[in-house]
């Protein structure tokens, strides 16, 4: 269940802009030149993310994707008619800090996380998952040491009738890890 936040007056216009940009090409299929590495449900991947000026190695696992309702979408956007037929999809990804320095600022590990529905990229909703049950807000992670794990989430709008959902996490070197999930019916 998604919760309305006091920042919705700021997030709403961002979502409308993102929807407009998606209409101009955000629904393209994944580029075939990117190296995609399939992961099974529950399988972890090891990848690097730039945190400030350093690279940090993470073991990460996309745990699940939960779909919301059109009513929840209407509460998240400033112009619900622009989001008709779309529902929120929340990806829960568990990150374990494997190597690199202790992180003392907001981690960026979840930034390269995206959700695809039936092969098309969804539309990001900034900050919507920070307070979803089972998700930690990146701003609440104050000191992330090697060996510690956190569940960070991202929310995207996807078509309500999507059949297949994918969570993508891309490294800066071009490798993309992909976890596939069936859409709940």
- List the helices and strands in order: HEEEHEEEEEEE
Give the strand order of the largest sheet, numbering strands 1, 2, ... along the chain.
1-10-9-5-6
Question: Based on CA inertia axes, which overall geometry fits?
Answer: globular
Q: Kindly state the percentage of residues in helix.
A: 10-25%
Which residues form runs of ≥5 with pLDDT under 50? 1-33
Largest sheet: 5 strands, mixed
Q: Got a strand count?
A: 10
Distance between the termini: 17 Å
Quote the average pLDDT.
82
Please explain how this structure is put together.
This protein is mostly beta strands. Helices cover 14% and strands 41% of the residues. A five-stranded mixed beta sheet has the order 1-10-9-5-6, with no helix packed on it. The protein has a five-stranded antiparallel beta sheet with strand order 2-3-4-8-7. A hairpin with a 4-residue loop joins strand 9 and strand 10. The radius of gyration is 16 Å and the shape is globular. The two termini are 17 Å apart. Residues 1-33 have low confidence and may be disordered.
């Amino acid at each position: 269940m998604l919760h309305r936040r006091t920042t919705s007056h700021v997030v709403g216009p961002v979502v409308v802009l993102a929807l407009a940009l998606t209409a101009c090409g955000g629904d393209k299929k994944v580029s075939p030149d990117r190296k995609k590495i399939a992961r099974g449900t529950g399988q972890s991947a090891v990848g690097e993310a730039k945190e400030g000026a350093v690279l940090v190695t993470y073991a990460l696992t996309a745990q699940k994707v939960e779909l919301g309702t059109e009513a929840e979408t209407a509460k998240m956007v400033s112009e619900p008619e622009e989001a008709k037929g779309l529902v929120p999809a929340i990806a829960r990804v568990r990150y374990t800090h494997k190597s690199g320095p202790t992180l003392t600022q907001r981690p960026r590990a979840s930034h390269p996380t995206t959700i695809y529905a039936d092969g098309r990229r969804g539309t990001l909703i900034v900050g919507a998952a920070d307070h979803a049950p089972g998700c930690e807000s990146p701003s609440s992670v104050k000191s992330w040491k090697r060996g510690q794990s956190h569940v960070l989430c991202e929310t995207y709008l996807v078509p309500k009738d999507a059949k297949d959902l994918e969570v993508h996490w891309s490294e800066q070197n071009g490798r993309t890890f992909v976890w596939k999930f069936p859409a709940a019916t």
